[in-house]
Design goal:
Layout lengths: L1 E10 L2 E12 L4 E5 L4 H4 L1 H11 L8 E7 L11 H11 L11 E3 L2 E2 L5 E2 L4 H10 L4 E5 L3 H4 L6 E5 L2 H9 L1 H5 L23 H13 L3 E4 L6 H7 L9 H14 L14 E2 L7 H5 L9 H4 L4 E4 L7 H5 L2 H6 L1 E6 L2 E6 L3 E6 L17 H8 L4 H5 L3 E4 L5 H5 L7 H18 L13 H7 L4 H13 L4 H17 L7 H17 L2
Parallel strand pairs: 3-4, 5-8, 8-9, 10-15, 10-16, 11-12, 12-15
Antiparallel strand pairs: 1-2, 2-4, 6-7, 13-14
Length: 506
C-alpha cells in the first residue's frame, strides 16, 4: 500500500518542498530509505520504528520503503522523522492516506514517541500557506512560532499518538489554537547615562537616522562600548514586514525563544574578535546564517576592531556594498540577506593612548602596524568615523543628565519618516542604502555646499565611494533638520564625520 505526505527542507534561506513517500509490500521484513538521504535522515528508520513500538503501534513484518522526492537534493536534519512516521502509518493501513493530502509535517521524533522542536519552522509554514495547503503539523514546542503565519491552520503535537488522533479529527484540535506571543519587556540602556561625549552622541544619532556605518576611536575607558550598546535604543522601530523577515532568519538559525518567537527589536550582534570568517558569513556544507545575516536590519558591533583577523574583516567588504552574502558550495549557491549597520570600536594604538605622547608607549611602527590591520577599501565603506576622547573629571561629576534615548529617537523617527516617503518607490529604506544614481537624484546641494564639497574632494583626496558617503551623510543631517536642500552646514558636518580617519590614516 502506498501513501505520501509533504515536508520541506531548508537550503540557505530557501524552502524546498520534499514529498515523503512510503510503500508497504509483501517480502522479507525490511525498512529502506532512498532519495539521497543523509546519514542523519537514514537514522530516522530506527527512531521511527522504536518510537512507534513505544507508542503502542507495531509495524507489520513486511517490506517498508521510504522515498524522498526530489531525489537530486540531499535531505539533512531530523525534521523528516514525523512525516516518515505518518507516511509509514498510512501505508500500513493504520491511517487513511487521504488524511495526509495537502498537509505539511515537520518534526523530530524521540524513541519514546515524543516530538521535539526543530529549527526553520517559520519559513516552512510560510511556504505552506503560500502554496494553499490545508494545514501544518509541527512540534508543540514550535507552535507559537507557527501561529505567526495567519493564512494557514497550524497544529502542534507532543507525541506520535497525539498526531494520529489529530489526523482523525482535525477540526476538534484547531479549537483554541489562536495563541498570542508573549512580549518580553526589557528595560533598555539609555543615552542619558553617558557623561559628556556630546559629539559622539551626535554622530550616533546621525548614524541611526540614516543607517550609516560608524567607527568609534578612542582610548580605553572613554565609553566606546557603552555608546555602541545604546545605539539600538534610538533606531526606528521594526516594521511588521521587517519583524517577520528577521524572525524567519532566526528560525532557520534555531535562535528563537519558544515563549516569545516574534522578533520586535532590531538585532544587536556582538561577536568576539576571535570569530572566524565562517562565523561571520555563515558556514558549513549546507550553510546557515552567520553573524552578518543575524545582524540584518540591525547592528553588527565589532569591538576591538583591529583585533579581528584580516580575513574576517575583509569578508565585510562585499556585504557592506551589496547588502547580501553569496556563498558557493558544491551543493549550490546560497544567498543570505545582509542589510546591517556596522558599528565598530577600537583603540588608536596597541596601548590605546595615541596620539597623547605623554601616555602613549607605542613606537611609530607599532602604531602604523596596528592601524594598518584595517584596509583602506574597508575604511571607505564606513560613513562616519568619530573620536571618543577621554572623559574629564568635570564631566564625570556633572550632575546634569544629557539627552535621553527617547528624545533622540523622536528626531530619528522624524528623519526616518522623511526617508520613507522619499524612497517609497525606490525599494530602499534609508539614506545609507542609496546607490550612485539615487544620490544624484536626491542629494541636491546649494552652490556653497557644492563648492565646499569640491574643495574637500581635492584636498582630502576622496575616492568616488568616499564622495558618495559624504553626500549620504549630509542628506541624513539635512533630514534631521527637516531641510530638503543640502547646504554648506550639512556638508561641513558630514565632512567632520570623516575627519578623524584622516587623523589616523594618512
Amino acid at each position: 500500500m502506498f501513501a505520501s505526505v509533504l515536508s520541506a527542507a531548508i537550503f540557505g534561506m530557501e524552502v524546498c518542498p520534499i514529498q515523503v513517500e512510503a510503500d508497504v509490500s509483501n517480502g522479507l521484513p525490511s525498512f529502506t530509505m532512498v532519495g539521497y538521504a543523509s546519514a542523519q535522515v537514514k537514522e530516522a528508520q530506527e527512531r521511527v520504528r522504536t518510537a512507534l513500538k513505544n507508542s503502542g503501534v507495531a509495524l507489520p513484518p513486511r517490506r517498508i520503503t521510504v522515498n524522498f522526492v526530489p531525489a537530486d537534493i540531499k535531505k539533512e536534519g531530523a525534521g523528516f522523522d514525523l512525516p516518515v512516521a505518518a507516511a509509514v502509518l498510512a501505508a500500513s493501513g493504520m491511517l487513511k492516506p487521504e488524511l495526509l493530502t495537502d498537509v505539511m509535517m515537520v518534526g523530530e521524533v524521540s524513541l519514546n514517541g515524543e516530538i521535539h522542536p526543530v529549527s526553520g519552522i517559520l519559513p516552512r509554514v510560510i511556504h505552506a500557506g503560500e502554496t494553499g495547503l490545508r494545514f501544518c503539523v509541527i512540534p508543540s514546542g514550535n507552535l507559537k512560532e507557527g501561529l505567526l503565519v495567519k493564512n494557514i491552520k497550524v497544529i502542534g503535537v507532543r507525541t506520535l499518538r497525539e498526531m494520529m488522533l489529530f489526523l482523525q479529527n482535525p477540526e476538534k484540535h484547531f479549537a483554541g489554537q489562536e495563541e498570542m506571543c508573549k512580549v518580553i519587556d526589557e528595560k533598555p540602556e539609555d543615552f542619558k547615562e553617558i557623561q559628556g561625549q556630546e559629539g559622539a552622541k551626535r554622530a550616533a544619532e546621525i548614524a541611526a537616522a540614516g543607517f550609516h556605518n560608524i567607527l568609534l576611536i578612542g582610548p580605553p575607558g572613554a565609553g566606546k562600548t557603552m555608546l555602541a550598546r545604546r545605539i539600538p535604543t534610538i533606531m526606528p522601530d521594526l516594521t511588521e514586514e521587517e519583524g517577520m523577515e528577521l524572525t524567519k532568519i532566526y528560525s532557520i538559525a534555531g535562535l528563537l525563544s519558544e515563549e516569545a518567537p516574534l522578533i520586535l527589536k532590531r538585532p544587536f550582534r556582538n561577536p568576539h574578535h576571535t570569530s572566524s570568517p565562517q562565523a561571520l558569513t555563515g558556514g558549513g556544507r549546507n550553510p546557515g546564517p552567520g553573524e552578518i545575516t543575524l545582524s540584518h536590519r540591525g547592528i553588527l558591533f565589532l569591538d576591538e576592531f583591529p583585533e579581528f583577523s584580516r580575513a574576517a574583516l575583509e569578508t565585510l567588504r562585499q556585504p557592506l556594498e551589496d547588502r547580501e552574502i553569496v556563498l558557493s558550495r558544491a551543493s549550490g549557491t546560497y544567498h543570505f540577506p545582509a542589510n546591517f549597520m556596522l558599528v565598530a570600536a577600537m583603540n588608536p594604538c596597541p596601548c590605546g593612548y595615541y596620539p597623547d605622547m605623554n601616555r602613549c608607549t607605542c613606537t611609530a611602527g607599532q602604531v602604523s602596524h596596528y592601524l594598518g590591520k584595517i584596509s583602506r577599501p574597508l575604511l571607505d565603506r564606513i560613513d562616519i568615523c568619530t573620536d571618543i576622547p577621554a572623559v574629564t573629571f568635570s564631566q564625570m561629576t556633572d550632575q546634569e543628565k544629557g539627552e535621553s534615548s527617547f528624545e533622540m529617537k523622536v528626531r530619528v523617527e522624524k528623519a526616518r519618516d522623511i526617508q520613507k516617503e522619499r524612497y517609497k518607490k525606490e525599494g530602499i529604506r534609508f539614506n545609507g542604502e542609496m546607490t550612485g544614481k539615487q544620490i544624484k537624484k536626491y542629494c541636491t546641494c546649494t552652490r556653497e555646499g557644492e563648492r565646499l564639497l569640491g574643495m574637500a574632494f581635492e584636498k582630502m583626496k576622496f575616492s568616488a565611494r568616499s564622495y558618495h558617503k559624504v553626500l549620504r551623510t549630509a542628506r541624513t543631517i539635512a533630514d534631521l533638520q527637516g531641510k530638503e536642500i543640502i547646504d554648506s552646514s550639512h556638508i561641513g558636518e558630514a565632512l567632520s564625520c570623516r575627519a578623524f580617519d584622516k587623523k589616523y590614516w594618512n
